[in-house]
Amino acid sequence: MSVSLTERYRHKIVTAEELRQKIGAPPRDQRVIMCHGVFDVVHPGHVRHMLYAKSKADVLVCSLTADKFITKGVHRPHIPQELRAANLAAFEMVDYVVIDMHEKPLTNIGIIQPDYFAKGFEYTAAGMPPKTAEEAAIVEAYGGEMIFTPGDIVYSSSTLINLAPPSIKFEKLQLVMERHKISFDALRRTIDQMSGKRVHVVGDTIVDSYTQCAMIGGQTKTPTMSVLFERKDDFSGGAAVVAKHLRAAGASVTFTTVLGNDELKDFVLDDLREAGIETNAVIDATRPTVNKNAIVVAGYRLLKVDTLDNRSISDHILSDMTDAVGRIETDAVVYADFRHGIFNRRTIPEFARALPPGVYKVADSQVASRWGNITEFQGFDLITPNEREARFALADQDSGIRPLASQLYDKAACKLLMLKLGERGMLVCRGADHESLDSFYVIDTFVDRLVDPVGAGDALLAYSTLAMLVSRDDAQASILGAMAAACECEEDGNIPIGPEAMHGKIDSVEKSINFG
Q1: H or E stretch including 40?
Q2: Strand positions, DSSP E, 397-480
Q3: Is residue 80 part of a domain?
């Protein structure tokens, strides 16, 4: 792996206490000036600000706000704090960088006691704001001086980010890999060791149908559209395709589900048998096999016709399914909830109690448009909701991503949360101490050519689960889950992703990080 920005300039990045030891207490032989900001995107206005500050002293210290205190914008900061620190440290004029773990710079100003504290001219243009006045009071109390830099050029980081959000997916990945001491060879070994891991998937089967038609026209007397039937293609979806992704990765898979007593039942059983999946199907003659049929004309989904019965499974079927969960020997159990009768407030506690001791417990809840709630799966090892499902579960449409993840992590009492953010990748929450630097990290998407995003979450769920079984390393699991999702997005349809595709994606990402 090539030397990263953070490794190259790490010697400049210090704590306030370490810096105080290096520069000593005032009065000093060398004058020290300190700047403070978010520095999410370093723009020409920042550069002029720092150049002017450096011209007034011998030592330039840049302090930046930690990620957890940045609330401007739901998905800010775009750049993690370690990368923002390294960006500043890369400037020759910057001598030291401090990541401020407080909401305001007041504490660090008191520790470092710079001779000068530099602010931009905008902080005096219309009178000194209250926050600046607080800073000035501390600086002046120990005999320091406030300096306001000239403002002949003004830029806004927020405006620049809104124009074009920065693409730093490889830098973010390298940061996570360095922090967790992961190599690309380690990722490859984890993929190769997935074969033979035992996983029991429990959940709703959905047969996804695509009825391809050609447009004929409309009726002259009524607003009725007329199409010509060409063909109908059926695919095993819902929890069934999660099982197929796990099997394609090399796992030994048992799938427990509920099917109706109809032709689609036979289609599902044949399809899963061909895929090498042991299917434990409970047949319920009182409900149909769930079918979602999209009417497609010239590539456009004209209409979707759902055939389903979302009422709760009976006590008899629940007993059969929970007995299977407790009886079948496995390394992991995945509950894939699409809220079509198997999982609900009545049944989830029974499914949780049925889990064998020592198995790795995973829950995925794809129910944002219905009455499901991922937090009903209490105390699981891994949950993988998307942002919409998280907001639905918490009735929270306003919080930033990190506070949202913190709330969900605590309410679900899980050990690992992978919060899927669509084209923005995922936010991983891995600890109850949400103030800790290691509690969160971001994995961006690795999609090179978007073809079809359907099934990305299923691929992520499968590979993250298996990676945790092999490595017990949440960073490896997150990275490989994101890579599996990217492979899926580059395929047309929900095609199970195998090890060959994953090795190709790892090779491609490693090449990009090492500049080819």
Answers
A1: none
A2: 417-420, 426-429, 440-443
A3: yes
Nearest to 112 by CA among 157, 155, 159, 62: 62
- Contact residues for 448 (Cβ-Cβ < 8 A; gap 6+): 486, 490, 508
The total number of structural domains in the chain stands at 1
Tell me, rounded to whole angstroms, the distance of Cα 39 from its chain centroid: 23
Sheet holding 332-337, edge to edge: 278-283, 252-259, 198-203, 332-337, 360-365, 382-383, 417-420, 426-429, 440-443
Q: Residue 136 domain-assigned?
A: yes
Cα 353 to Cα 255, 258, 323, 338, distances in angstroms: 19, 20, 11, 20
Backbone torsion region of residue 4, taken as left when φ is above 0, otherwise alpha when ψ lies between -120 and 50, otherwise beta: beta
- Is 370 in contact with 389 (CB distance < 8 Å)? no
Q: Which domain holds residue 148?
A: 5-166
Angle in degrees, 0-180, between the axes of helices 169-179 and 499-513, rounded to the nearest 10: 100
**Looking at residue 33, which CATH number applies to its domain?**
3.40.50.620
In this prediction, residue 228 carries a pLDDT of 93
pTM, full prediction: 0.76
Distance CA 393, CA 405 (A): 11
Residue 101: left (phi > 0), alpha (psi -120 to 50), or beta?
alpha
- Residues 289/265, Cβ–Cβ less than 8 Å: yes
Q: What is the per-residue pLDDT for 184?
A: 96
Query: What is d(CA 68, CA 53) in angstroms, rounded to the nearest whole number?
Result: 27
* Structural domain contains residue 466: no
Task: Check: CB of residue 34 under 8 Å from CB of residue 83.
Answer: no
**What is the predicted pLDDT for the residue at 474?**
95
From edge to edge, which strands make up the β-sheet containing 96-100? 96-100, 59-65, 32-37, 116-120, 145-149
Positive or negative, the CA dihedral 64, 67, 71, 76 is positive
| Segment 439-462, tens digit of pLDDT | 888 899 999 888 888 889 999 999
Max CA separation in the chain (angstroms): 93
Instruction: With respect to residue 455, please indicate whether it lies within any of the assigned structural domains.
Output: no
